[in-house]
Amino acid sequence: MRVFRTAPEDLRCLVLNADYQPLSYYPLSTWPWQEAIKAVFLERVDIVSEYDTLIRSPSVSLPAPSVVALRDYINQDRPPAFTRFNLFLRDGFRCQYCGTNKLDLLTFDHIIPRAYGGRTTWDNIATACAPCNLKKGGRTPREAKMPLHRPAERPSMHQLQAQGRRFPPKYLHESWLDYLYWDVELES
What we know:
alpha/beta; NA-targeting_endonuclease; endonuclease; 5 helices; HNH_5; endonuclease activity; nuclease; elongated
């Protein structure tokens, strides 16, 4: 991960909840500068930090926000949506049968096959690579002699956020570092 002192070209803005925690770690909660400025004028956010770059209109000139905090707290205890991305995040982007982390091979597998009445739920879906998914076929892990590395279960938002911290973005701006939890080194 690289940390920059200069503003990124797209002037991305880190979005924090009202408690000054990021809304999301993976993907990192950011907005384009245009969305951040709009939220400032609609009084939905407070500017916490700014870039040196000025945003100009015919009547107003202001520094581009680099970090904003929502004025209203968004509860993070809601259950996470069941999506392919969240499933992969829960399982650490690894096949739960062989452990491979080749992203281009990842898919998902019904632990109890649909032919046996298995449903598409957090408790019955695991991340699998395509070769393992084909090898297991329409059998249970026991029938296929392919045990799971860890049991499938519904994660909490806090568990997904903790898992997301294991995958830092490729770059950060130094003004974001006080609000994030990664060990980083500054680059010029």
